[in-house]
Automatic annotation (TrEMBL):
Source organism: Lacticaseibacillus paracasei subsp. paracasei Lpp123
GO cellular component terms, A-Z: cytoplasm; ribose phosphate diphosphokinase complex
Alphabetic keyword roster: Kinase, Nucleotide biosynthesis, Transferase
Protein's UniProt name: Ribose-phosphate pyrophosphokinase
GO MF assignments: kinase activity; magnesium ion binding; ribose phosphate diphosphokinase activity
GO biological-process terms attached to the record: 5-phosphoribose 1-diphosphate biosynthetic process; purine nucleotide biosynthetic process
Limits of the Ribose-phosphate pyrophosphokinase N-terminal domain: 4-70
Length: 70
């Protein structure tokens, strides 16, 4: 069985924390950087190679920002 990793972006951190608690997994760290020109950079400081990865993100307002983080 593959290792499971759970990530949360900025869209709904409280929901991600609740899901992590319910499934008994820690949230893996993810850094979200927004640049002045509107670009977004996501950094995952740990390897996800070979893991099953789940990303929790809302696409509610602000839709463009939240969707682009995905």
């Amino acid at each position: 069985m593959h290792e499971l990793k759970l990530f949360s972006l900025n869209g709904n951190r409280p929901l991600a924390e609740k899901i992590a608690e319910e499934v008994g997994l820690p949230l893996s760290p993810a850094r979200v950087n927004h640049f002045a020109d509107g670009e977004v950079q996501i950094e995952l400081p740990e390897s996800v190679r070979g893991a099953d990865v789940y990303v929790i993100q809302s696409v509610s307002d602000p839709v463009n920002e939240n969707f682009m983080e995905l």
